[in-house]
Design a protein that fits this description.
There is one protein chain. The chain is mainly α and about 220 residues long. The chain has 2 domains: about 130 residues, Up-down Bundle (Butyryl-CoA Dehydrogenase, subunit A, domain 3), CATH 1.20.140; about 80 residues, Cd81 Antigen, Extracellular Domain, Chain: A. The protein is about 70% helix and about 0% strand. It has 6 helices and 2 strands; from the N terminus they run αααααββα. Strands 1-2 form a two-stranded antiparallel ribbon. α4 packs across α5. The termini are far apart.
Length: about 220
């Protein structure tokens, strides 16, 4: 009788422990799914709304903003990876296959390391925004952006999109790009967001640089 009772108790404990493990695994996967949605949405917002990827440019003064370029892509990358692991977790939860449990546990390790990397990049981004926000640094970055705008086609396209989407023109003044010392063209209308006059084909009417300089001096 005692043995039968002991066996029954042991079997009940095993069932109870499995149920607890399954519940914990299910809760963990729900948490991972929520984290996935938050990370992917945040990364997507940083790219499409705040254009973090368009501020950085390699081999220039703007490369100091590399964390701003890395942050949204890291969020999306870890988010997608977390989603795949969470899906595997639900499979493990339903099938209770030991090899899959092992694979699931192994895949969780790099995700945890990736989260620490994400935290590091986040702090780097905050530091870059705080330390590079003085008036002198802003002027230096603005000059670097204007030089890149006239020299690099890919940067010009990204910067036009950025300023058009944010509804801004120039850096501190709407004539910044036209009066820039980096501009070699006689006629220009930079950036595209500064264009207020268009012809019948929708093309920006080019401005004479000397005429704009004269008008600027009068306005001052």
């Amino acid at each position: 009788m005692n043995r039968e009772g002991s066996g029954s108790t042991t079997f009940t404990e095993i069932i109870t422990k499995n149920t607890v493990y399954q519940s914990a695994l299910f809760a963990l996967n729900l948490l991972l799914m929520v984290a996935t949605v938050v990370m992917v949405f945040t990364g997507y917002t940083l790219l499409t709304t705040y254009h973090f990827d368009k501020i950085y440019y390699p081999d220039s003064k703007l490369e100091a903003f590399w964390p701003m370029n890395a942050l949204p892509w890291t969020l999306i990358g870890i988010g997608v990876s977390t989603l795949m692991v969470a899906v595997l977790g639900f499979v493990v939860f339903s099938l209770q296959i030991r090899p899959l449990i092992t694979i699931y546990a192994v895949l969780l390790a790099p995700l945890v390391l990736g989260k620490f990397g994400l935290i590091h990049i986040t702090f780097k981004t905050e530091t870059a925004l705080r330390e590079e926000s003085s008036y002198l640094d802003i002027a230096e970055y603005q000059n670097a952006a204007m030089q890149l705008y006239h020299e690099k086609e890919d940067f010009r396209q990204s910067w036009d999109l950025l300023q058009t989407h944010l509804r801004c023109c120039g850096g501190t003044y709407y004539l910044d790009y036209i009066l820039s010392s980096y501009a070699n063209q006689t006629y220009m209308c930079y950036p595209q967001s500064c264009c207020v006059e268009k012809n019948i084909n929708g093309e920006c009417i080019l401005k004479n640089k000397d005429r704009v300089s004269f008008e600027a001096n009068i306005n001052v």
